[in-house]
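Input record (Table S2, row 454):
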Amino acid sequence: MTSGRLFLIRDGLHALCLATFCSLYLGTFSFPAIAEELELVIVHTNDFHGHIKEEKNYAGAARISAFVLQQRERHPRVIFLDAGDAISGTPVSTMFKGLPIFEVMNLMNYDVGLLGNHEFDHGYKEIMKFRETANHPLLASNALDPRGNLIADMANYVLEVKGITVGFIGVITEKTPRMITPLGNAGLTFLDPVMVVKEEVRKMRADVDLLVLLSHLGHKEDQDLADAVPGIDLIIGGHSHTYVNPPVKIGSTYVAQAHRYGTQVGLLQLTVDTDKNSVVGFSGRLIPAAKLPAPDPAVLNRVNFFEEQVEHLVDMEITRSSRKISPNEVQGIFEKILSDTAKADFGYYNIGGIRDTIPAGPVTARHIWNIEPFSNTLVTIKIKGSDYLKLLNRERESHPSSTSISADKTYIVATNSFIGAHAVKAFGNAVQMNDLGVLVRDVVIENIKRNGLE
Ligand SMILES: [Zn+2]
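Output record (zinc ion complex):
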């Protein structure tokens, strides 16, 4: 959303309140304070990662949409929010650079969204296309382009929901530069979230009944922020993929998050006192995919339209697996395949880049796509042992290659272009990167087709 639709006036009048007010006025000629307690329902998602199609325990966009429609039929005030990382995780997202996800989200009628770190996967300039495509505003108050301008639609947003003025602030993790490809993302600034949110709360608090922070910081960070910045009623979180059921309360701030990939949908019911600008009643829980209603046909149609364009490429069986293979085992499989293919000393694949498991039974190319949706290429890096150990960082203790490294030797490591680019950024000329120009995903699919998994 790029046009100047700052305020979406759902319904300025609140008929019931007016009626009450009138009778009091006519009866007594005095104006007693009328407690205005209004109910608001919030449905929320985060870290959807392109899973518009129903598969495994992921609900798919159409069933989530049906759930939201059901809520809108039952309750007068329903808002539908997303806390970032809507894209990157499936072939349909990657092949079309994230755009189908926002098109489908339009049919689901989201009210407000957020930029997560994965919205930068195709370079920050592609975010302009997301903003043009999405009917809902995409927030992020602390992400700035090389000229110092906001990358998001806006830093904050106000929505009138039949008598309740709801303010929204958006914030993204300042660790984003370490998590995104440097390609197309040079010169960006991510400001300290606590500082920026404090300032936005100061500007907005007096003018809204309810203040909601959409956060792509992670659950622990959300709780710390709630502690550090008073005045936020509710944090709708994401990024850490945390199953938060029910939401937790820190001071007077509720903190929610709905796992990932649409396995859960968050449902919150609030009673808002619009005289005191405060939440006087709250309940919240996660609804698992299996409990959601049958698909919304309009959304399902659109999902099928996009999925049909990728099916012939990704739904072919490449092997069978006798058991489910965990992300840590998948990491080992990828490292061996990359190392063998590039004839390197060893392979290294960051565990954060392994986005899914391999199921028992038929294994399709789609499964490998879901594990590696980023379209990284296979690279080798020539790197000193001491630098390599620094690169391993948090995985240093657990990674099998780390025990056989001597600090002053030089090694050839096969890895993905994401890690390669970060190594070059960190160690400069001390590292020589060679991009083999083939996609990691294609290399892995071809290898598994030939050799199986056992
Ligand atoms: Zn994230």
